[in-house]
Amino acid sequence: MKIFLDTAKVEEIKRAAEWGVVDGVTTNPSLLARAGRADVEAVVREIASLVDGPISVEVISTTAEGMIEEARRIASWGLNTAVKIPMTEEGLKAVRVLSREGIKTNVTLVFSVSQGLLAAKAGATFVSPFIGRLDDVSHEGMTLVRDLAGIFSRYGFSTEIIAASIRHPLHVVEAARAGAHIATVPFGVLAQMVKHPLTDVGIQRFLEDWNRLTTEALSAA
Ligand code: E4P
Hints:
The protein has 11 helices and 8 strands. By secondary structure, the chain is α/β, with parallel strands linked by helices. The chain has one domain (2-195): Aldolase class I (TIM Barrel), CATH 3.20.20. Strands 1-2-3-4-5-6-7-8 form an 8-stranded parallel beta barrel, surrounded by 7 helices. The mean pLDDT is 98. It binds erythose-4-phosphate (E4P). It comes from Ammonifex thiophilus. Pfam families: TAL_FSA.
């Protein structure tokens, strides 16, 4: 399973990219607001210098015409972008046109199997089921990922599933088990995934034992 970073903060992307685990990046208007960056093209250029994989950039328009225009502009930057299109009737119209033009799309705000299925049929490159937001309203988000993975595999859709709205490390593990192609992970969750208390205790114990050994060897000499 690939791991994307779900952030528009370049510093976070730089740090995680050094760990060799980042296959792409997803942004959205809220993440750009959190990063305090309205200069979207400049942000995407900075990210592209750090990460090879696709960078998702969301449209603001709500009409198919507007979305298509925005998507073509984003694609004209000549970077490895995927245009995030909201899961609406207008969005599906836009995805149909864009997929025929070879512009990558990421259909976002997917909350049901029927939405994911339609997005794949319209030609989406990626679909993003929002796990955490479903869990928030007492629907098991991971069931959606599992169902979509089964259906896409059964009918040979090339659309990749991005498990989005990830809240904790277990979501990432469960997304992998459920057959997501990708999990897009906030930096804080990725940092939590690195850690285990037994690793820290283990390192401390090895260093203490080594120090004891070398101190004894010195005093015996
Ligand atoms: C990524 O593509 C989504 O926009 C993001 O994961 C949404 O996360 P949230 O539900 O925490 O805002």
